Amino acid sequence: MKTPCQVSSILWVLLLLAIFFPSSSALSARVTLNSSLSFAERYTDNLFRTSTNKKKDISSLISPFASLKYDQKDFILQGRYNGTAQFFVKNPKADRFQHSIRLFGTLRRFKLLNISFSEGFIFTPATDTFLPGQRQQITSGGVGGLGGIGGVGGIGGIGLGNQGIITPRTNTIRNQANLNMNYQWTRLLSTRMSTSNFITRFSSNTLQSSVFQTTSIGGAFKWLQTSQTTSALNYDRIFLISDVATMINIQNFTLSFRHGLRPRVFLTGRVGASLVRNNRTRLIATLSTLVPYPSGNFTLLYTQRVGLAQGLAATPTLTQLLATSASRQFTQRFRGAIRFFVGRNVSLKGNSLDLITFQPSARIQFQILRWLNLNLLYRYAKQINFGSFGGEIQTNKIEFGLTTVYRADLESLFSLPTTPTEEQP
User: Fold this and answer.
1) What is the assigned CATH class of domain 33-414?
2) Which helix (DSSP H) or strand (DSSP E) does residue 101 occupy?
3) pTM for this structure?
């Protein structure tokens, strides 16, 4: 029997063959380049994220960003790169470079079948507690995700950043691969199948590296203009790379829905059960809403899920998270956002892990010129420990920086005739 990884590899090969052998009527493409370069100064009062012997320091950050999009009739390909070079004043041995590379693709050759994939690699010296391990970049449209909850994921997902846990500063490599197929049977009915593989490797021997694999199959039915009901059956498998003998199998069964409360206001939720070997069944649920208004938006999310303790302990963990954010465009050039996260992680076997984490943050942005932005960020995080893993950790971060923005449309460089024999006017 083929594993989800083997099936994913076969589907990836078929997808790439379809992409690189496009039809002769789809040779004209549009290529768009977006890029930015940020310079920032950051202060932190706990550089190594320790409960004792805290180290204060100031660092200089240089962060390039580039996005290249290839848009053709049959398919879309997009690549993104985020990087950060960080140089410390008092602790030069802690200087680090962070890299994030992502590749996205969508196959549109078939009328009713939509196939998409993504592959990403992240190398970071310190994982973010709640958000994904990469710094937000600013494009010509403003701050990416400003005011949103960003990477917060639903049931069975891996978008909680570091699951709301503050871990010691250590080099981390993360790899995520996704493959999705959606078939639109009618205007109201569609089915979907997806598979994902997520690997986290820590350089520190005190943290446990892990693999998260998930396969999902389900469908969606749109029963009102503003409402849609979706259902999915998910199978999740989590195990530790360093100790396969302690494999943890987690199976999630969920039902999701999306309902329009009023124009542009939607309530999204999931509810289901998580089955853990040698443990009782656990309720898992997610409820979120996005309320846009003329000058910004407000987001609220609650989720409860079962996963691993992000390397702290080889045990299944119940995670509860409450997240809220608000953004506002005060003037044409000035905008701001605030976020607040609170999370709790409790081990399902024994009392080895019991952590509560708080993280409020605020960000403002001022557009000095069309291509130049001024940014100011403050973030506070505190972790309270009631178990034997993790520690009482508290950090403050203040960041001040400038970002330059560049955008180019390269369509004229990549436009080709429809067919080689087509006569030009």
Assistant:
1) mainly beta
2) strand 96-107
3) 0.79
